[in-house]
Specification:
The chain has helices at residues 5-18, 34-43, 47-63, 78-89, 94-113, 162-173, 196-203, 242-247, 252-265, 273-290, 326-332, 386-396, 459-463, 468-476, 512-531, 617-635; strands spanning 150-152, 155-158, 178-181, 211-212, 218-219, 268-270, 294-296, 298-300, 336-338, 341-349, 352-361, 368-377, 380-383, 417-421, 434-438, 446-451, 481-488, 495-499, 503-507, 536-538, 568-569, 600-602. It has 636 residues and is an alpha/beta fold.
Length: 636
């Protein structure tokens, strides 16, 4: 077991105080052994995840000593524990609130994912329409080395996500000898089973527990596997708005054909009425009532049956992530995709990139294999490890940083959940997970998307106020609850830094403008839900009562809430090696070539010059395609 007796006792005490037996749902946390489940789960997690949870439990337990209760949480009697939880939720000490939210999110995820609880909250995870898997999908063959190796190719690509896969296809189809090295494993539809915690553990970096450090702490999950974050993303595909491309000095006409080719390859189209589900329908109703702009989201899917678990891997391969589209096409054109290979350094000779070195990893443990050093030499090295890991690779070698911009300008599109509770059943988890958008305030940096993860799952779940019977009442109303998330176009205050010992630090403080946009976004979403007939709207702001009438909307933006009050998660890291024509202020040029290091290119989310204002995946793909085609033309 991963937890000491004391920490496990703290966890059990907290879980029981939050979810005691009785109330609107009879079983309590102890009836389904939440503490035991989480403890044995941690045994299967990475050491870093165990350290994080251990730290949170210790911090939470001791935090009550510095309150009027004067004793560790687990030593308190039941009434004192309840009183402390109430105080914690609105505490002025941010760390107290945030630790409680994170632990509550974990507890709720295990509770709500339990087979004994799911039927009680009406959660039926079965697809509501059965369709066969698309026979047109080409199976992807990957190589999984058992020890070190040496290879020589024309282009080596580090990372197989949105950027790396598109680059691999373009370069291989141009006749170049290409190897893609991916640290994670290869998964497909057969692997996408099991409970949400198990899927988080397997398909997410750091088992899904990755955060930024700053005010507030923000959950920043990232995918890890063949296909990168496209394996577990929601499938939303917006072209970069023209006003954004203009601000980047890019030409919408030039990128148009790139977008068109990507949209054809990924079968991108709007969510149909048959799989929209009630979560999208209520947003549509509210939007129409108010006359706001928006519509069904465009997605990369074929044969989708609306099971609503896209962020945990599509069990049908209906979501057309890179592992079932661009990577098989790249492989068909001769590219080799090698998994379990973590690139540790870029080889540089006479100032020019000439290949990469790294370690092969055990697929079970993720540990380095014995004799697992590998080397791939290539006159062209493409970094596509994503906006967090690409800058870290460069920083470890102090490479490519004459502009001092490597790792800076991190944008993440912070956002939060808003929940609308209706007077009738919606079963909002039935249907596409992210299905409908309202872009009325897009130019102000606010995009609203109807998004419903499985009940009780996600960082926002921990932000639902209350404990005991209040919390149970709320869970019992999940069938009547709709959920939306915000995408806030942020100002780039974040930074990624490599730390000694091979670690990294992501710092991010919300800019005051972004706090204002977030609150306006919460208000806009609440307004939409009220217009759709919601009885109440939960904003997840600490101490804020449910909003029931339009006149109460002003509470959200009346200046009472600041950065530290927001419960945020973000899914779109970008901008840490930005593109530009001036080598003094950017890291790569318009074709992804690193200004300082010939032979080195970057083709992932790091190169985005600013916020995309919309979900970024096809922008990343379009820029990667353009850069790869340019490289291919130079080499032919
Ligand atoms: C839960 C979630 C939902 C999302 N939903 C959407 C959505 O609906 N629409 C949208 O547009 N965007 C969405 N995104 C974001 C989108 O998926 C990413 O912006 C995009 O995939 C980033 O592409 P990338 O190539 O930069 O990195 P990634 O796709 O993350 O790929 C990077 C790859 O590099 C590998 N790697 C890292 N370091 C190394 C190393 N040292 N050696 C070898 N390999 C390495 C990683 O394992 C990973 O597989 C979502 C993201 C998440 C996490
Ligand atoms: S809703 Fe998502 S997970 Fe379910 S079939 Fe469609 S794409 Fe796949």
């Amino acid at each position: 077991m991963s937890l000491t007796t004391a920490r496990r006792a703290t966890l059990a005490a907290l879980a029981d105080s939050l979810l005691p037996r009785g109330g609107a749902l009879e079983p309590g946390a102890s009836d389904v052994n939440v503490a035991g489940q989480l403890d044995s789960y941690l045994d299967r997690c990475a050491p870093g995840t165990r350290r994080t949870v251990n730290f949170m439990l210790t911090a939470f337990n001791l935090s009550s000593i510095a309150s009027r209760h004067l004793r560790p949480f687990r030593m308190l009697g039941a009434p004192a524990r309840e009183a402390y939880l109430v105080a914690c939720e609105t505490s002025k000490i941010r760390q107290r609130r945030e630790t409680l939210i994170a632990l509550k999110a974990l507890i709720l995820m295990f509770f709500c994912s339990d087979d004994r609880i799911k039927p009680l909250i009406g959660y039926d995870a079965q697809p509501f329409k059965k369709v066969e898997r698309d026979p047109g999908i080409i199976e992807l063959k990957v190589e999984q080395p058992e020890s070190g190796f040496y290879e020589a190719v024309d282009v080596v690509i580090v990372g197989s996500g949105a950027g790396g896969s598109v680059a691999a296809k373009e370069l291989a189809e141009a006749g170049l000898k290409v190897i893609v090295l991916e640290e994670g494993e290869h998964f497909d539809r057969r692997d996408f089973t099991g409970s949400p915690p198990e899927r988080l553990r397997r398909f997410y970096r750091g088992n899904g527990l990755t955060f930024t450090i700053g005010v507030p702490t923000i959950s920043l999950p990232i995918g890890r596997g063949v296909g990168g974050s496209t394996l577990i993303n929601s499938g939303t595909c917006f072209r970069t708005p023209d006003f954004v491309l203009d601000s980047w000095g890019m030409n919408a006409d030039e990128l148009g054909p790139q977008f068109a080719a990507i949209e054809a390859a990924l079968n991108i189209g709007p969510v149909g009425a048959d799989i929209m589900g009630a979560n999208g329908e209520v947003m549509d109703k509210g939007r129409r009532e108010l006359g706001y702009s928006g519509g069904p989201i465009r997605r990369n899917a074929r044969g989708c049956h609306g099971s609503g678990v896209c962020a945990f891997g599509c069990p049908l391969d209906a979501k057309l992530g890179m592992h079932v589209t661009y990577l098989p096409l790249a492989a068909k054109a001769g590219a080799r995709i090698i998994t379990g290979c973590r690139v540790d350094c870029i080889m540089v000779e006479s100032g020019r990139a000439v290949g990469v070195r790294g370690s092969t990893l055990d697929p079970e443990t993720g540990a380095m294999q014995r004799d697992g050093r590998f080397e791939v030499s290539a006159p062209h090295v493409v970094l596509a490890a994503g906006a967090i890991y690409t800058p870290v690779l460069l920083q470890r070698q102090r490479l490519a940083n004459s502009s001092r911009q490597v790792g800076r300008n991190l944008r993440i599109h912070p956002g939060c959940g808003v929940l609308g509770v209706f007077d009738h059943d919606l079963h909002a988890w039935k249907g596409v997970m992210q299905s409908y958008y309202v872009d009325e305030k897009l130019r102000d940096g606010i995009l609203v998307e109807a998004t419903y993860p499985p009940p009780g799952v996600g960082y926002s779940a921990g932000g639902v106020g209350g404990k005991g019977s209040d919390l149970k009442d709320f869970l019992a109303r999940y069938p009547q609850t709709a959920a939306a998330g915000l995408i806030i176009s942020d100002t780039g205050t974040g930074r990624v830094r490599a730390t000694p010992g091979g670690g990294l630090l992501i710092t991010y403080d919300m800019h005051a403008d972004d706090v204002r946009k977030t609150l306006e976004g919460i208000r806009l979403t609440s307004e939409i839900y009220l217009a759709a007939g919601a009885q109440e709207v939960h904003t997840l702001l600490p101490g804020m009562p449910a909003v029931r009438k339009r006149e109460e909307l002003s509470w959200i933006t009346d200046g009472k809430w600041g950065a530290a009050d927001l419960k945020l998660s973000a899914y779109h890291p970008m901008g840490t090696c930005r593109m530009g024509s001036d080598s003094r202020s950017s890291v790569v040029d318009e074709h992804g070539r690193v200004h300082d290091v010939p032979g080195l290119l970057i083709m992932d989310a790091s190169v985005l010059p600013g916020s995309t204002y919309v979900n970024p995946q096809i922008t990343i793909m379009a820029l990667a395609a353009r850069s790869a085609q340019h490289l291919a033309s130079e080499l032919s």
